[in-house]
Amino acid sequence: MTGGELTLGAVPARLEEREREIAALAETTGEQIEQLTARLDELGRAAEEIRITRKTLLELPDPQPPAPPAPKLPDHPAYRQILAVFTAADAPLRARQVCEAMDMEIANTFNNTRLKLKRLTERGILVETGQGSFTQPQP
Questions:
Q1: CB burial class (10 A; 0-12, 13-18, 19+) of residue 134?
Q2: pTM value?
Q3: pLDDT in tens, 5-20
Q4: Are 128 and 121 in contact (CB under 8 A)?
């Protein structure tokens, strides 16, 4: 017999050795399965947390942009009178119409009123819809 051949008495010893190897591999594989199962559970929990977060975020209302600060009205009382005229008006007004609504002499106050209307337009309080035609901005 050569060194590579098994004798009848060596077969049970070889089988027992192979059985121990398989048992060791099975134990190692079992431990790997436990580790992978634990990792799979962790990943499943993380995915569920992401799904919950996504759902929560999608249910939130869209944030409203902050309202721009209201334009500051000049201190002179004539500006309040002009705005009162525009509040009562249902159409754009010209400087002449504003003067008439305020019972002012058109010849003496027309240019001053037009300049005030331009100032209010620059501040965003009024809108010039056409040349010399003013109105309050629409929301």
A1: buried
A2: 0.51
A3: 768 778 888 999 999 9
A4: yes
